[in-house]
Specification:
homodimer, 213 residues, nine-stranded mixed sheet, 6 helices, 21% helix, globular
């Protein structure tokens, strides 16, 4: 059955990005340390168009997260291109080149309308100005019996949790303390959770949860 | 070799107690939910003088946390008896009755001097007014080759992390979101960590970390 889910890597003090995000440090100060477990994996490197890498207990977790996805929802900040109206000289087309690793429709939340943007490989970016509920609805519709994945960032995750859209999520708990930054689980309201399973892996612990209704 | 360590159960948003702590709800609103995995364990119930209980993957984690402890350090708030000078009609003797479950010296941080308080079963409460560094020193001295455990609360854990006193710690990650309360890992400065191991158990995930120097 189709579910709405997300996976996010957080520090043990709950941040998915450090403070002072910038073009040079898009994950904020110290934020790169969160992903050391991930960027060495063959499964991640392959999806990113890179060679090499290793296989360990995290590989299956990443593979499962990438499987059966029918659509993504992401925030404008994650899609990139700055704030405010889209430029047109040329307009921003995302961080991922001509063939983004999504390969299904991606619904980008924005305050600024824009035509849908088909890319190579099956990815099409759709720009949704009617808010997160509408973006989830549209994503569900095209995903049909596959899952909708909330790609991020923190603000979209928080909005979806608060609105009750999330069925399941996975925390990748990295052995890092960031001290400040973006907390995806802050101010999400009153949620009842059930732990589904936990997996120990090198430099990370994966724990998945179900949101109870 | 003797180490300084602590174990703490936190919500997935990082709180070890909920908001609005009171005599009726000493763990704050929702805070009891953090410990559902623990209070059903035979090993915990036995230490608390209660019967019954079950054994599961958490049992060994709790047993290891209780083993080889030579001394404890705790904050005044955890010892209890309100704030300000100690009354004397009669003076507060802790939450745990005549035979507290510690059975070794316990160093209580306070601003208000008081004579040491020997209890039954080997526990003696010592009251330290010279700050956390001195309390850790005294605890190390009496613990000799056994470990010093920081019993809590959040403020003492934060002080010890910030001062570099902690060698190892264990997070028990409960499937709970509290939204507000006491965060033991907030404002602890710049720490480098190594994940030691993770254990999946019913309604909790145990993850232990080493602080790198």
């Amino acid at each position: 059955m189709s579910v709405v889910r997300f996976m996010v890597t957080v520090s043990i003090d709950g941040y998915m990005a450090g403070p002072d995000q910038s073009l040079e440090e898009p994950l904020g100060v110290g934020g790169e340390d969160l992903h050391r477990w991930l960027t060495e994996l063959e499964v991640w490197r392959r999806a990113a168009g890179l060679g090499g890498g290793i296989t360990n207990a995290s590989s299956r977790v990443v593979e499962e997260a990438q499987a059966d996805v029918g659509a993504y929802v992401m925030g404008r900040n994650m899609f990139g291109g700055g704030r405010g109206p889209w430029g047109d000289d040329p307009p921003w087309r995302g961080w991922w080149g001509d063939d983004p690793p999504y390969r299904v429709p991606v619904f980008v939340l924005t305050h600024h309308p824009r035509e849908s943007l088909p890319m190579e490989g099956g990815t099409t970016f759709h720009f949704v100005t009617a808010g997160v509920d509408r973006a989830i609805d549209q994503a569900r519709e095209v995903a049909r019996d596959r899952d909708v994945v909330i790609a991020g960032g923190a603000d979209v995750i928080r909005q979806c949790l608060r609105a009750g859209h999330v069925d399941r999520f996975e925390l990748n708990l990295a052995p890092v303390i960031l001290g400040a930054g973006e907390r995806p689980l802050a101010d999400v309201g009153d949620l009842r959770l059930e732990q589904i399973r936990a997996i120990e892996a090198p430099r990370v612990t994966h724990v998945s949860y179900r949101v109870l209704r």
